[in-house]
Amino acid sequence: MSSKKLIYISLGVVFTAVIMTGCKTPSLMEKTVNRTVPEKFTDSQDTSNTAKLDWEEYFSDVHLVGLIDTALIRNQELNIILQEIAIAKFEIGARKGEYLPSVDLKAGSGVEKKARYTPEGASEATTDIEPGREMPEPVPDFQLGAIASWEVDIWHKLRNAKESAVKEYLATEEGKNFMITQLVAEIANSYYELLALDNQLQILNQNIEIQSNALKIVKLQKQASRVTELAVRKFEAEVLHTKSLKFKIQQSIVETENKINYLLGRYPQPIERSSQKIIDIMPDSVQTGIPSQLLNNRPDIKEAEYKLAAAKLDIKVAKANFYPSLDISAGIGLQAFNPSYLIQAPESMLFNVAGDLMAPLINRKAIKAHYYSANAKQIQAVYEYEQTVLNAYVEVVNQLSNINNLKQSYELKAQQVQALNESIDIANDLFRSARADYMEVLLTQRDALESKFELVETKKEQMNAKVNIYQALGGGWN
């Protein structure tokens, strides 16, 4: 067997070993996502869903609608997320460019002096460009050309990387939508808190007037020696205590207004709002639809789904690193030691074409680690998706229960307020006729005030539940 043939056989064996070793991939633990959800939230199977309503339609208060509209334009956190979306979009372009051929233009010049007593130096010294004209020393070098390179995407590694970037981009879009639902809900809840504080301030002013009138009566009775100075001081203390509560509520109003202003991306200023008492607002009924609709309505679920898809593609990208890669490079141009010779083709023309096929053979630990890491991230993405779906279902169920319990609580508290309002009149009448102690009057007034505050607070919680169920169902972003 000739030595040349032996070399070819040896190269073939080595190449086959490289291919076989490179294509061998380690096994992974697989985890499939569970997309099943319960069939219903309640006994109803109605598919009508409040989440399909636009937020402008769901919230009828024109002042609240105006605040939300402003926030969607000026909120800084939302604008930061919009820039993250732009970054993700540019990443798609970068990944797409990686699997397309690249061409670079090259122009350069230089000078080189070879040592005379070297093969190259001796060759240049004895070379004539033309009869009677020797090679210049040192030798200038001028070149102009184009260089192309291309990694042939045999295993779709680069395409899968681009598709992964697309999924990440879509995930950031859904993240933005989820941010919008949170922003809409936070503004609406703060707005209803502001209405509740206004209502409590009105109640407080009314109560101060009632207590002040009662104080006048006690002073008259003291003059008539029907009560002692202790009763007068007790009534005065109660009036002062109630008046001090005004400043606490006024401070809460300022802080709530500024919270809304912050969400709107503007400096503190008064918030325009409805003059209607929150106690008079009736929450609308909510249609929850069926749980499977959450998968399409909730942006956080869709975000988790896109991230899961991206994680699956990343495994394919990592797996492709075990396989051989084919790189093709080529160049064409002009090169001469004198610029005037550059246009004398074909003598000044040069070109090259090369192809490299490489596969990992030794020390593949880094590739395996990257492969295992991508698999672990995919399993993590599965758990995060399932957790997001479970959390969405639990949120809806909790809010449905909250709405029902708040409705019953509000009805009972309304009856309590009515009973205590009547007891104030009774206590005052009994006090005037000396059939009730002044402490009974004071305690009755205090209980009535607390019950009115609690009624307003319960109404606010009802309105918050209306906002929260809308958000839990996936409404507010469309």
Automatic annotation (TrEMBL):
The chain crosses the membrane at residues 6-23. Pfam families: OEP (PF02321). It comes from the Bacteria. GO terms for molecular function: efflux transmembrane transporter activity. SUPFAM superfamilies: Outer membrane efflux proteins (OEP). One of its GO terms (cellular component) is plasma membrane. It is a lipid-anchor. Keywords: Coiled coil, Lipoprotein, Membrane, Palmitate, Transmembrane, Transmembrane beta strand, Transmembrane helix. It is found in: Cell membrane. Residues 403-466 form a coiled coil. InterPro entries: MdtP/NodT-like, OMP_efflux. Belongs to the outer membrane factor (OMF) (TC 1.B.17) family. NCBIfam families: outer_NodT. This is TolC family protein. It comes from Marivirga salinarum. The lineage of its organism: Bacteria, Pseudomonadati, Bacteroidota, Cytophagia, Cytophagales.
